[in-house]
Amino acid sequence: MTEFRIIRKESAGFARRGQITTAHGVIETPCFMPVGTKATVKGLTPKQLVDETQSQIVLANTYHLFLRPGHELIESLGGVHKFMGWNGPMLTDSGGFQVFSLSSMRRIEESGVTFRSPIDGSSHQLSPESSIAIQEALGADIIMAFDECTPHPATYKEALDSLELTARWAARSSTARKRSDNLLFGIVQGSTYPELRKLSLEKTIDVGFDGYALGGLSVGEGQAAMYDVVQEFGPQMPELTPRYLMGVGTPEDLLVAVAGGLDMFDCVMPTRNARNGMYFTRRGPLTIKQARFREDPEPVDARCDCYTCRNFSRAYLRHLFVSKEILSSVLATIHNLYFYNQLMAGMRLALERDEFQQFKKSFLDDYKTSDV
After folding, report:
1. Residue 323 class from Cβ within 10 Å (0-12 exposed, 13-18 middle, 19+ buried)?
2. From the candidates 51, 93, 141, 365, which is the catalytic residue?
């Protein structure tokens, strides 16, 4: 059984507290989804994801798993959950963004996108039909319609053509669906043009999906433009379905987006930055390689009770990073994902108490974008 229900809406805004029920468990929203591109969140075991970071749901990538090891293999081994040893909910993206951003020698046609694999140069095509078939073979709980991720900058005509292609592909994605034990989300494009976002939203709603996503953001448009889209169109998305903001973002971004009525988020930032020695804290980001931490006995964040902060000093974490030890990435990833998940948990609690605006203001007043 898959469903979404709203538990509480704030009295003076658009933020809401909800639950998504899937075949692999309940997702409490608002939620953050760690990115497990190739059926793994870099540096962590599935057990660590649950026990040490309190992650509820993981995102995997259709494009990458299609190219290697192949969705047929994963399906033959019991699906992506069994393949990677993850028992919780799973979302797969459609592969559209990766085709357009990573593939060379690609050709976009009405039928789909033909591209060459960056692994061995072999030629492949992804279409709405094949993307849905791959995602269903993987066995994800939430799957995405195949779309064209509109680049930035894009002219009005380019954005219009792109969203119309996405709308046609959305209808084909819906028709191609075979399984009923998952949720299929449609994606709204339109770049930063308000009238095109509105048109794309209308066309996507006309197809009819279990959930809706804002795509084509965090592609270079700048924070102010992204916030304009989120704040205007988040509340306009269908109320009784999950709302997903793709590829976002910083802690500030998440608070702004939840205030705009969004429920679900993913971003590589907490894991990628961890591998580069950057820790998120309540006072802002901390770059552990700095010499001032060489003899620092304090934890990264004294107010954090994650495994990393409970057990290790800044001095030790700096030593691991400058020594290029694998454990540096592991401990930093644990901390950053725990930080993100605690931020979401704090928002959920504040929404239950109808104190979200106070929570948002308090967090942003305390949080700084410069190094602590």
Report:
1. exposed
2. 93
What does the alpha-carbon distance between residue 242 and residue 25 come to, in Å, rounded to a whole number?
16
Q: Catalytic one among 141, 147, 253, 266?
A: 266
247-287: per-residue pLDDT in tens?
999 999 999 999 999 999 999 999 999 999 999 999 999 99
| 266: annotated active-site residue | yes
CATH class of 31-266: alpha beta
- What pLDDT digit, counting tens, does each position of 179-231 carry? 999 999 999 999 999 999 999 999 999 999 999 999 999 888 999 999 999 99
For the chain, the domains span 31-266, 274-366
350 residue type, one letter: A
- 354 catalytic residue (yes or no): no
Is 0.85 topped by the overall pTM? yes
Q: How far is CA 37 from CA 64, 91, 161, 167, in A?
A: 7, 11, 29, 25
Count, residues in the chain: 372
